[in-house]
Specification:
alpha+beta; YaeB-like fold; six-stranded mixed β-sheet; 9 helices
């Protein structure tokens, strides 16, 4: 049987999303409508109309009911020759948004936007979101809600693709979420989450340290942190979003630059300082006392070795040395 002729199974999730998006009384009514539309007008294809281009499915195939709905398809897990419709997406023109995003702010605006899984994943990856997707989604919502607004153009630093509009939130617009007309429960979908600091979290070692202003008053010349950096022991230095469990609270710290186990620098963030946006606020050393003592002894030994000079024994220098010793 040709793949295009396989029957389509409408899942509960697909029926539920259709009911919510199109206003059916319940999923049963929505499923019946979908079955009829699939039978009469549905086309299984891997080529989408321009108005819904860019949508994804597990199989790469969709049921297209022109100008009505799009059903992403998955193959049957048991290998049966049938398609599994996993969700229901409305065509952009099928339902007009009840509000204009630019007229809303805060939680009222977020009520109109669905945070898609990819946006939550990026929040987890670059913004310290929890490993649990459901919890991370709530965290992202709470982070955006106090300051979020909709703009027609993204900030220049974001480098994102064109979208219908953009959610911008945080201090100095540090979060950007491109949005498009939705096809599910809400009028709009946020497709991804971009944070202004994302390039910093891709760096480590010397490349990361080069982006941090290490003042003599915050990381002293003879401190463990400075010694770790100068002798190349911070090659694994990395930036972390949350305070390490062993470190004391530093209210002014935005992130933490971890140099070594139990050795870190709390940092502030000034994104307008492009070359060095990270500002060291001090040094936190919670390594065992014995480790710190041994390191101090090694530093003293190196300084002693550097100051030692061999005693001259011959020639004019030797005679001058012996004369001074008398």
């Amino acid at each position: 049987m040709n793949r295009g002729d396989w029957p389509v199974v409408v899942t509960d999730r697909c029926a539920h999303s259709c009911a919510e998006a199109m206003g059916f009384a319940d999923p049963t009514e929505a499923r019946a409508w979908l079955h009829e539309q699939i039978r009469v007008r549905g086309t299984v294809t891997d080529r989408l109309p321009a108005s819904v281009a860019g949508r994804r499915s597990r199989s790469g195939y969709f049921v297209v009911i022109e100008d009505e709905v799009l059903l992403p398809l998955a193959e049957d897990r048991d290998g049966a020759p049938q398609w599994i419709a996993t969700y229901c997406v409305l065509f952009p023109g099928r339902r007009a948004a009840a509000v204009t995003p630019s007229s809303l702010r805060g939680r009222r605006l977020l009520d109109e936007v669905e945070l898609l899984p990819h946006a939550v994943e990026r929040f987890q990856q670059y913004c310290g979101g929890s490993a649990d997707p459901a919890l991370a989604r709530r965290e992202l919502y709470d982070v955006l809600a106090p300051t979020v607004r909709a703009t027609s153009r993204p900030p220049r630093w974001s480098g994102t693709r064109p979208a219908d509009f953009y959610l911008v939130a945080g201090d100095d617009g540090e979060y950007v979420l491109p949005c498009r007309v939705g096809g599910g429960r809400r009028p709009f979908d946020a497709t991804t989450c971009i944070h202004r600091s994302r390039d910093l979290f891709d760096l480590e070692g010397d490349r990361l340290l080069a982006r941090c202003l290490l003042g003599a008053d915050t990381v002293p010349a003879r401190s463990a942190g400075r010694a770790c950096i100068e002798r190349g022991g911070a090659s694994g230095a990395r930036l972390v979003w949350h305070r390490p469990a062993w470190a004391p609270a530093r209210p002014a710290a935005r992130w933490w630059l971890v140099l070594a186990p139990r050795l870190a620098i709390p940092v502030a963030w000034q994104p307008r300082h492009r070359s060095r946006p990270l500002i060291a606020l001090g040094l936190v050393d919670r390594r065992p006392v014995l480790v710190r003592l041994l390191e101090r002894l090694r530093r003293l030994r190196r300084r002693s070795s550097a100051s030692w000079r061999p005693r001259p024994t011959g020639g004019a220098a030797g005679r001058a040395y012996r004369a001074r010793r008398r």
